[in-house]
Fold each of these.
Amino acid sequence: MQNQAIQVKGLQKSYTKIHVLKGVDFEVEKGCIFALLGSNGAGKTTIIKILTTLLKQDSGTATINGFDVATKPDDVRQSISLTGQFAAVDEILTGRENLVMIARLRHLKNTRQVADNLLDRFGLTEAADRRVSTYSGGMRRRLDIAMSLVGKPQLIFLDEPTTGLDPEGRIEVWKTVKELANGGTTVFLTTQYLEEAEQLADQIAILHEGKIIANGTLAELKKLFPPAKVEYVEKQPTLEEIFLAIIGKKAEKAQ
Amino acid sequence: MNKHFFSDMGVMLGRSMRHIFRSLDTIITVTIMPIAFMLLFVYVFGGAIQTGTDNYVNYLLPGILLIAIASGIAYTAYRLFMDMQRGIFERFHSMPIARSIVLWGHVLTSLVSNAISVVVIILVALIMGFRSPAGVLSWLAVAGILALFTLALTWIAAIAGLSATSVDGAGAFSYPIIFLPFISSAFVPTRSMPPVVRAFAENQPVTSIVEAIRALLSNQPVGNELWVALAWCVGITLVAYLFAMKVYKKRV
């Protein structure tokens, strides 16, 4: 058994006109939450697509649980699950039908039971028999993540899981991600929200102009900057704190 | 090909069939529209059309079935396009299932759903007075031709669905195909048409397919038409399949 869930070395990828990845290297340990930070168009999605076997790199290697993504894509697909940037749910089916469909494609037994458990876990039991097109953004995202958990993959990829969600929805997703990691699943997520990485990640890498320019724990990254100065500043609540306090959800804000 | 190929394809079929049965729009277009055409041609225009047969429903039915299939495959392109747009394709492709399952699921759905609308239309035609002396073998041959025709158009639809950049574009290719039966012997004999139109009508695939089905259903000798019809269907299927696979490989 090796401890690395993901090993990426010298990854390069160009599209017709742009050189998106110019030699990306990083490793992700099993069981941790890894956040890949970067601005729009930095290449975060390209990395996810290569790691999930949807796209082939030009050069460099990437292995998932020891399997090379380019030469052993079938083995890679056995142990991963992808929640893409756009909710990968079937809008015309109900929440339960979506989960049963994935469970059947993963050739599980008791597909109905698997679906019911996940619906319960993600607070979707009441909405289970409604078509997904009637779901809110947060519910859709939750179902999306639930679908990725069918069959208990060891590694799950979340591409900008909270983009487009309201604060409540975002906190729901954060809670879910933390629970996942507590259960031993490795989580690879991309985000453009610094706060999200700060809240969730054990390890943070920053992708900028095609390369990883910083990589480490939050504490390690903080050391790269000048030491904190002590100043007395009156702490004003952020708008988010006000919003959450008013709607009474503050207590749920996950640790 | 892995051992779950067919059960996985069954899951995909179930998914798309649910899409069809939950979309009123699809049902109206693929069955009610052709039935409306049939009523219109038989009870409104039919009296003025000279086909040389005493039962115009018998004459008309093959053409109506082709129109139904042509409008049905527009939805195949649409469903494929929608899947490409949303994240669901990426989810399927990152799962441990054969990649081609997703495409074949749509193809199978197209065959099954068009078969259903063909049966419904034939039942309505029976109520309207359609009668056929054809035996089981002839009916099987008709089913085979219609399935091949569906398959040919489905692969054309796959090209459209995979390469379209908008929803409208995904469905637009089907209009000329829906129109083809009108410039064929489907509704009126070609001998009444001006020479240029007639030449086109007699040499396009729909005419030979219509004539072959008509001959089979009325127990007439089929002759060359059947082989011409089969050649068209198989030829279009092969070319469209190769092209669609090329587009598919490029997109995934």
Amino acid sequence: MKITVNGREMEVADGLSLEGLLTHLAVKREYTAVAVNREITPKASYASVALRDGDRVEIVRPMGGG
Amino acid sequence: MHDTNLVLGGKDFTSRLIVGTGKYSSNEIMRQAHEESGAEIVTVAVRRVSLPGKGESILDFIDTKRFTLLPNTAGCYTADEAVRTAYLAREAGLGEMVKLEVIGDARTLFPDVQGLLEATKTLAREGFVVMPYTNDDPIIAKRLEDAGAACVMPLGAPIGSGLGIRNPYNIKIILETVSVPVIVDAGVGTASDAAIAMELGCDGVLMNTAIAGARDAVAMARAMRLAVEAGRLAYKAGRIGKKLYATASSPIEGLPDWTS
């Protein structure tokens, strides 16, 4: 299936969990937050969220700013 | 002289200088500048991670046991975007404090005060410690306070402009209008600007570019610390009134007679 992660389209395995995606992308968990289709996903639910075709995932963390 | 602390969201801070983490020439220079600034709060933006998620992070250069991270909603143009960003920051573990920005225009980066009020109401209701970046407008400042803002942060001048405190009289009126802390956010160019803000009676100053963009950011960070301290002390000490004509500092009586 195709999903969009931080604006980039990617092909991933059907039914991949959010946890699986973060591991696949080597995303550090500390100070990271995730939203799927504009809805923020609590850290505790990463493993139980199964991604679906067309999902838009945003993964953010603190960057330099004023 | 005894001074009270800056209290935000029930937390006490001895430093009245809040500094940013953007635009430094390197993360190491940023770390040294933070150290010299004496700041206890540093602002951060919330942005997409680079994928794959490897590489240097600013958090490797910020001791989060010492510094309180203050996420901003920079780049948000609607209340909805700003609120979502604040939630993301909280979910990321950045705490309840949020430097709320709802931008109205890309060229001036002036706030959209209508959106700002709306987002302040929503986030304050949800338990956030809302620190709104606003105009130097006393009416809006009061409305933000009524909406539950933990402080108000009027701009001195446009973000990154270095023009200083363009309307000290409005800042003064804001100070008389609200009872929450007033922190000048944006516009500071050099140390005297920070001192002026503090001499007016502001509770703090927030800056990024003035330090990060200085030729020697680390030295400027120290200058800003001293300026904020000096300005605060001068405010507490109570300055003399301004007069048009001279008043002699030495007594008139007791002058020797030189007439022949």
